[in-house]
Amino acid sequence: MPLAIDNIRVGRVYRLTNYGETRLLQAMERINSVNFRMKDMDTLEFYELEELLRWGKGKDYDLDEIR
Predict the structure, then answer these.
(1) Are 28 and 10 contacting, i.e. CB atoms less than 8 angstroms apart?
(2) pTM exceeding 0.85
């Protein structure tokens, strides 16, 4: 069962799976109540969580805290 967006904490690392793509992301800062600035741990690029979920949540959507 995926973690709710409300339960994301700054500084923690999460695994996001959506549409067959898996990313390790660290929450860097909270932008507003439903959006975070996330750092991709593999490429070191920054994304907004809203940007990663813009096209919806696929059947394989999963968000888990790993550290």
Answers:
(1) yes
(2) yes
Residue 17 is part of which domain span? 5-65
Total domains, the chain = 1
The one-digit pLDDT tens for each residue of the chain (67 residues) are 788 888 999 999 999 999 999 999 999 999 998 899 999 999 999 999 999 999 898 899 999 999 7
CA distance 67 to 49: 18
Closest CA to 12 of 3, 57, 21, 58: 3
Q: Cα(first)–Cα(last) distance of the chain, in Å?
A: 17
